[in-house]
Amino acid sequence: MEPWYSLRWFSPDVWAQFRFSNPLALYFIPTIGMLFVLRYYLHRNSQQRLNMSLGSTTSRTSGSRFSENTIRVNQVLISSLRFLLPGSLFIAMSLLLIALARPQFVQTHREQQSEGIDIMLAMDVSSSMTETDLPPNRLAAARRVAQTFVNGRKNDRIGLVIFAGEAFSLCPLTTDYPLLKQYLSELNDRMIPASGTAIGDALARCINRMRDPAMTQEDSTQTEKKRSKLIILLSDGDNTAGNLDPVTAARLAKAFAIRIYTIAVGRATRSSTSASTIDEGILKTIADIGHGSFFRAADAGRLKAVFDQIDRLEKAPVRVLVYEDIQDYYRVYLYWAISFLLFALFLKNTIIGNVLED
């Protein structure tokens, strides 16, 4: 940083960076200037001045004219020196007001803190998810919307469970969103050869991923208080497989304070070659037990709207911490003000001041 006597403290670049703690003090500077001007006009006629005559001659040479002009310029310069004393006082008082306004350099640092949310996506990859009522098919539409949902999350740990006749944990809870989206892009109906829809087993897999066995009971309790947990289960069929009843799994999730959102994908279709039914009753029951919500997505637009709604409902509170590093520089202008005051006292209390006033 520059020393206090540096003229850089009066540059526009430095002043543009200042924040004044008491900016009202700056408004008194023009007032003081008006008082000095008023005092000058009131006392101008009462002061005695010595008029100097340069003489008048009828004929003047070019050399005498040059001497006369030089004398006039010197006379103007000398007479202007009488403003040195009031000018010094005005500058000193202005600098005192600037110091009173407390110029500061402020550096602001913002830090956002959020505990985030634990989210498990349970995706149905059974053969019925290849129906084309959601173009190009149900699984592809769900996969695309799930990737968009992952893009909109911040500070949240997200995991992935896939299920058909069996349930498998494909990705643990992670904040590595590119890896999770890669897993989502690779989903297909051939990943699990067992036919059926094991909703209860899928819920159990999600609960097991959220319940970290490495934690002690005390640590687990503290974590549950900090982070919300939820399961988003997406399916298009009945619970026709698995070893665990979905209602029992939903009650287990409730015991671990895990909310459940269920989404029924597609429309019920019947044809000569295939039949697809959606058991909305069990999905609604699961959502009610898990203190979540049930959604019906009959087309791709509605499916995206469902994920958008869940995204709005499940947001972790974000705390914004603002740190301000404040450095005061009023002393710089206070030192300048004292210097001009001392200079004004020197002019006032010496013969120099008397000469300047005459």
From TrEMBL:
<feature type="transmembrane region" description="Helical">
    <location>
        <begin position="81"/>
        <end position="101"/>
    </location>
</feature>
<protein>
    <submittedName>
        <fullName>VWA domain-containing protein</fullName>
    </submittedName>
</protein>
<dbReference type="Pfam" id="PF00092">
    <property type="entry name" value="VWA"/>
</dbReference>
<dbReference type="InterPro" id="IPR002035">
    <property type="entry name" value="VWF_A"/>
</dbReference>
<keyword id="KW-0472">Membrane</keyword>
<feature type="domain" description="VWFA">
    <location>
        <begin position="118"/>
        <end position="310"/>
    </location>
</feature>
<keyword id="KW-1003">Cell membrane</keyword>
<keyword id="KW-0812">Transmembrane</keyword>
<feature type="transmembrane region" description="Helical">
    <location>
        <begin position="333"/>
        <end position="356"/>
    </location>
</feature>
<feature type="transmembrane region" description="Helical">
    <location>
        <begin position="20"/>
        <end position="42"/>
    </location>
</feature>
<dbReference type="InterPro" id="IPR036465">
    <property type="entry name" value="vWFA_dom_sf"/>
</dbReference>
<dbReference type="InterPro" id="IPR050768">
    <property type="entry name" value="UPF0353/GerABKA_families"/>
</dbReference>
<keyword id="KW-1133">Transmembrane helix</keyword>
